[in-house]
Amino acid sequence: MISKELVAASTKPMLLAILAKGESYGYAIIEEVRDRSGGELEWSEGMLYPVLHRLENEKLILSSWKLGENGRKRKYYRLSAAGTKALEVERKQWSTIHNTLTAIWETKACLS
Amino acid sequence: MISKELVAASTKPMLLAILAKGESYGYAIIEEVRDRSGGELEWSEGMLYPVLHRLENEKLILSSWKLGENGRKRKYYRLSAAGTKALEVERKQWSTIHNTLTAIWETKACLS
DNA sequence: TGTTATACCTAACGCCGCTGGGTATCATAC
DNA sequence: GTATGATACCCAGCGGCGTTAGGTATAACA
Predict the structure, then answer these.
(1) Beta carbon pairs, A and B, within 8 Å
(2) ipTM of the assembly?
(3) Cystine design at B25: which of B50, B74, B107, B109 (Cβ 3.0–4.6 Å)?
(4) What is the largest CA-CA distance in chain A?
(5) Nucleotide closest to residue A73 (CA–C1')
(6) Rounded to whole angstroms, how far apart are CA atoms A65 and B46?
(7) Are A52 and A19 contacting, i.e. CB atoms less than 8 angstroms apart?
(8) Structure pTM?
(9) Strand B61-67 with B73-79, pairing
């Protein structure tokens, strides 16, 4: 079980990264996250949909209703130009924190 | 400027990691974080102290008042046994998310 | 016909960092 | 000697966001 804070921090960059590979929709995104994390990450719908709406509101992603192969209506999301830029910002921020964290961890390893 | 969510997610593991290297106190911790991150991370006191109190409440860290070399009273914190375990849990969770994120990012790189 | 999977949405709650304060001591400068 | 800045601690109120726990609707299957 991943802590709430980590989920909060990783949701936006992960979503943007997934949509950067091509358009997708809510249900499929939840499955992809589960697969990619080897089952460690289990996003809930109640968490994902508000995030999608928020990102759309921020103009980082765009949506359009389409009919899936199974005859069901799906709301497909894709990255906007601003979303692509935002993804890069997210990646840099993540790297900054990750590097700082590993630097401290490695220092500990040296002393112990 | 690092996003609020990322700060929230990294505060606890970073604090535990710093104290794992030896006891320290609020003001010095803020400086260490600033140095370690190359100035990218700037913790505020209003953010740090409540976190320290919370971690102490969770028995992950222990505190004791001491007199610093400069004649000032300082509240020194150190890791408890439970805190050491918690640090390992935090590290694992961080790795899980980091690996998932980089996996998705690399996939994107392959397709583009 | 009813149950499961798909697919979307929302309201109330709680946690937690952020902002913007406050208090006190010590060193330095004027 | 007194003002300023650095050190060092603390707290209240606010807002954002995941969580929990619901709801609606359609297609497939039994």
Answers:
(1) 105
(2) 0.86
(3) B74
(4) 61
(5) C7
(6) 45
(7) no
(8) 0.87
(9) antiparallel
